[in-house]
Please model this.
Amino acid sequence: MANPLASMIDPKSLPPSLWADTVEEAPAAPPLENDMSCDLAVVGAGFTGLSAALHAARDGASVIVLEASEPGWGASGRNGGEVLPGLKLLPDEICDLMGKDVGEKLVAFAEGGPDLVFELIERYAIKCEATRSGWLRPAHTQGAEDGLKENLRQLVERGHAAEWLEAPDAAVQLGTDTWHGAILDHRGGTVQPFGYARGLCRAALEEGVRVCGNSPVSEVKRAGDAWQVTAPGGQVKAGKVLLATNAYTGFHCPGLNDRLARSIMPVTSFIVATEPLSDNLQKTILPQGQCFSDSRRFLLYGRKDAGGRLLLGGRGLMREPKRPEDFGHIEKALRQAYPMLADVKISHRWSGRLAVTPDYLPHVHEPEPGLLMALGYTGRGVALATALGGAMGTYAATGDRSHLPLPVTPITTIPFHGARALYAGALFTWYRALDALSN
Ligand SMILES: Cc1cc2nc3c(=O)[nH]c(=O)nc-3n(C[C@H](O)[C@H](O)[C@H](O)COP(=O)(O)OP(=O)(O)OC[C@H]3O[C@@H](n4cnc5c(N)ncnc54)[C@H](O)[C@@H]3O)c2cc1C
Model:
């Protein structure tokens, strides 16, 4: 069966972005050219797939990664590069949902994600402009402060390094008084995400992983007691397969069909970057180099890069952007938040797809023994996909499920998934109303 992603993933076209313009050279990842065999085949070379491959190799498995385009092509090479601890839901909400023991295990795992990211960066000397200056979470209205303060209480109760900044202090750190009070979580940081993805790829190669770029997988099927993964250059026979395609999932797998793709809501997020700011503006805006994401349901997130540009990201449209005007709402938000940037030019505009799950939690599936999947980071994937990918790699290599931070669940598809554009439109209107009301 033809790969339905063929029209979406053009191996020759790396999507334009600030990160693509400022990234270190790519490691060699030649396409698959022969039939091969291994313990673990990984489909998709984003943070999930690369971290899984790296960890599985470290645990003794032979690993081949197959990537439709080049490593980091998906969300991993285009995101905001904010390395954030935790999950979208509050720790207590997760415990209510999953039970205390299971919930606390997942919470502790997700809170530790940034530690793993910065450890890997140090261990493999990954060049990705890494900084660990903290993460600001400003309230978009006075009323939204209550929810953030409750979130902070739950973090501090669990011993995490976070504090409350009253509005005047938050304004100094953000460089604007657009927002109200804020959490300052000292564990957060930033990376050049494409550089981090390429660095993870290099690290995986160093650990003996074979990474095949330009190798779109068209089929995954059972072959005796192994799995057969087909790409244009050949077939890989593997004891286990990990599907790490997240919001770019969409290939043929008999028995699975499109169920995995229909278990998540693909959401497009847009980012704009200014041209480098003057020294004065750089000293005023985010002077300590923190990143931020605010309390809106459709949140605004931002940071500076190593070149002194300000980046701002937020919700996209229900389609890929086609022209600069499609980013108008993000540029307007940028100039509203930072009126002193009224005349600053935008140098880059880009987008990518992330995967949102109905319960806002990541999901791990194994519908048949040895057919593994991990996805659904709901916009928190820099740290979380690295961590969950790592856990999946260790599980694949050892067969020990205790390494997984959450239960393996059946794939649950979202009803009327084909009408997701309608859903998302209605949800957006509803969320915008709630955001406006929370004052
Ligand atoms: C614009 C944007 C901003 C974001 N900002 C942040 C942020 O600041 N902080 C944060 O924590 N998270 C952020 N995220 C989320 C984060 O980027 C993702 O959660 C994370 O990168 C997911 O990684 P992944 O490896 O699971 O998926 P991806 O990086 O999307 O990788 C999937 C890969 O699978 C490949 N693939 C698909 N089909 C096939 C096939 N048939 N054969 C072979 N390969 C295939 C694709 O080419 C792709 O490279 C953002 C996301 C976006 C889009």
Q: What stands out?
A: The CA atoms of residues 185 and 363 lie 26 Å apart. The first strand starts at residue 36 and ends at 43.
